[in-house]
Design brief:
Structural class: alpha+beta
Oligomer: single chain
Strand order of the largest sheet: 1-2-3-4-5
Order of helices and strands: HEEEEEH
Radius of gyration: 12 Å
Helix content: 25-40%
Number of helices: 2
Shape: globular
Strand content: 35-45%
Distance between the termini: 31 Å
Length: 88
Amino acid sequence: MILGDSLTQEALSTGSKTNTTISPGGAIRLAVTLPDGAVQHFERPPATTCADWRATELEAPGSGFIFNEPITEHWGRALTLTALNSLI
């Protein structure tokens, strides 16, 4: 499994809260709060498919990481559904 998929699986299986924002240009940004209080961010550019999600920042208390990891379409579908449900 690639790193982006691993980060997605961990966030979606253990995350407790989600927040989705859509930029005026149509980019989607999804934030998932993890059990330790860290927040994993995912981004999808405008006018793209489920295969175009990327794992980006991980904000953790006292630290953080910047990622730019691709996510496969399989996990991208799950992120898309989560993002849409978060907007409701």
